[in-house]
Amino acid sequence: MVELPDSLPARMYLLAYDLKKHRLVVSGARLGYVLRAAALTELFLDGRLTEERRRPRPDTPGEDPYGLVAQIAASRPRSWQYWVRKDSKAMVRTVRDELAAAGYIRVRQRRMLGLFPSEEITVRDPRVVKTLWGGASSALRGLPVAHVNSYDAAAVALAAAGELKTVLPSSDRRRHKRRIQELTARSGPAAPAVRKVIKAQNAGVGAG
Predict the structure, then answer these.
(1) So where are the chain's domains?
(2) Largest CB tally within 10 Å, which of 77, 97, 100, 161?
């Protein structure tokens, strides 16, 4: 039996990996947004965060593996989009190191053209990624939304928001638009926040 990572951010990192191309399909800020949103979603689903006036608020005490509840508790009320953006690059490193330490990935430091530092990420057991893909695919096409595993539902919602083509090619996002909306509604406010952050970022790039 394939052992999957416990955390939703770790699962989303692996779902962003293309087994054919042997690399992440998104990286940098966008991957960071998805991972931050995954952490917020996990906290929301577990009852450690709730929503008040369209902003996250700490609720039931419990584990805070990435320190987001502590950040939110120490801050004035801010939007979900703010918390998706905050420390997004650091989140990528944190989740990468978590997966490497657990043996899910291997990270090699390289230099492109002998000059520019880069990372080579290798998934040690492709079955892990395939199992996660299978869960997301089942959530998209299988059981009634109310009966879908909460992490599989969230994976689809976050993949759609973050435009992870490994999980949801553009054609699938169009074909299953209503189902994705239902899974997103079930998964909480963080996934829609990712979509807004990326849309704003793309608009800024276009304007520039």
Answers:
(1) 8-203
(2) 161
Query: 123-129: long-range contacts (C-beta < 8 A, 24 or more apart)?
Result: 123/14, 123/17, 123/19, 125/2, 126/19, 127/2, 128/2, 128/3, 128/4, 128/5, 128/14, 128/104, 129/14, 129/15, 129/17, 129/19
CB 51 within 8 A of CB 57: yes
Cα separation, 146 vs 78, whole angstroms: 30
pTM of the model: 0.92
User: CATH number of the domain at 8-203, please?
Assistant: 1.10.3630.10
